[in-house]
Amino acid sequence: MLKNELYSNVLQDFNTGYWQLHKNPYKEDWSDKFYENLGYTKNDIRSNLDYFLDALIHKNDVDVFRDNFLNYRINDLNFKQHIKILKKNGKYQLFRCATNSELPVNIRIEGCFLFFFEIKLDQEGTLKKDNFYYQETAQMTSTGSWHVDFQKKESYWDFETYRILEYPEDYKPSLKHSANYYAEDCRQLAVDCFLNCAMIGTPFNTEIKMVTANNREFWARAIGKPIYNEAKEIIGIRGVFQDIDDLKRKEISLQKSVDIIAGQNSRLFNFAHIVSHNLRSHTSNLSLLVQLIEDVNDPQEKEELINEVKTISDNLNTTIEHLNEVVTIQTNNKQQKIPVKFKDALHLVVNGISHMVSNSNCQIRSDFTALEEIRYIPAYLESILLNLITNAIKYKHSDRDPIINIKSYIDKDKKYLKVSDNGRGIDLTLFKDKVFGMYKTFHYNEDAVGIGLFLTKNQVESMDGSISVESEVDAGTTFTIEF
């Protein structure tokens, strides 16, 4: 039995008996204190689980204890529970049984589990008090419990489950309708958890979106474990779920803020790199040319060098304008959003580049029937459309006229804009991580600058959206914006 004298003395002081559970074979050694607390000798009773369930534990506690104990043995799922055990004098004694993790001291024996039984003296009125505290706890923590019986093919809810899921008290829960209790994008998770628990006895503890009778979605913490019969076969599942919607939404909001800050830091780092690199190259060239001009006496050579200064000055000015656009995006994203019709924004953009559209024989097809407008900064939406359309025209395929398809739509309550073309496409194997980089180009057009997609991505992300790209060389490119 327990070899550590210090721990043994502690357990004696707390009037605690225990079982020593061997992993292989399945057997239990009961401590002397356990027998003593019940008034038995080792010859009076048999020290195994089946005898304990059949002859000693109160019938009202059998089912829950068996489930908890087998889950501890099979799945290492810790628990604590109050149970009543029959003493030799014919009366029941209340015990608090608990696994090792529930104790104030960590007692370990290599190759064994320990399971403890502590006498509870305040037995009278316990069931009534426990029921009261259970209801109070369930209501204060928004925790409902449920039970599925595979043998009777019935499901059971407690009072708090009905309240949380907003069903009337006369509603009869059923596995046939269980998909209705979960959000569409979480139903597969619910099925996987349930089947793994029902088929192989795997407990689950997960966060999942549920749906009330009034179609209100909320986040819940769902916990479940299998129910066993006397033959240790799974005959059902018992579980609880807690409404954690407020906490989860705050967590999601916090994570979103962290992602935004990380994105802003990344863009700031990129911006600082561009500033230091591009401005330094321009200023270095200017310094070199000024030095050459001072050293040259030939008027013609000086004039040529001065023209070079003008070129570098123009390039420097262009770079500063680009950097200013990036800064403007970050400072203007707090402008008030207003309803903007996609049709009106597209009309303004196409009118502004009508000469470019007509010269390229470009066809622009749009479909905004599914989502006609969105709350946005108008200048940003126009700029996004302008950059994507002009890119599609600039990089049209040499063998065909450009066709651009623009469509807005809603999918699972999220709003999207998709812009597709039939142009040259981008080799994403080579350039996937560089598509939205500043001054990144993927074709050999002389007028390619590599600023448009960078600005577009910054504009979309500054409004808490995202942009993705799909492309195939010689087939075309599709940009999808999630607002």
What does this structure look like?
This protein is 44% helix and 25% strand. The chain is built from 14 helices and 17 strands. It has four domains: 5-124, Beta-Lactamase (2-Layer Sandwich); 136-243, Beta-Lactamase; 246-332, Orthogonal Bundle (Helix Hairpins); 334-483, 2-Layer Sandwich (Heat Shock Protein 90), CATH 3.30.565. A hairpin with a 2-residue loop joins β14 and β15. The chain is α+β, with helices and mostly antiparallel strands and 483 residues long. It is an enzyme of class 2 (transferase).
Structural class: alpha+beta
Taking strands numbered 1, 2, ... along the chain, how are they ordered across the largest sheet?
A: 2-1-5-4-3
How much of the residues is beta strand, in percent? 15-25%
- Strand count: 17
Helical region count? 14
Largest sheet: 5 strands, antiparallel
Overall pLDDT metric: 80
* CATH first level of the largest domain: Alpha Beta
The share of residues in helices is: 40-55%
- Taken together, the total number of domains comes to 4
Shape: elongated
Enzyme class: transferase
GO molecular function: ATP binding
EC number: 2.7.13.3
Protein name: histidine kinase
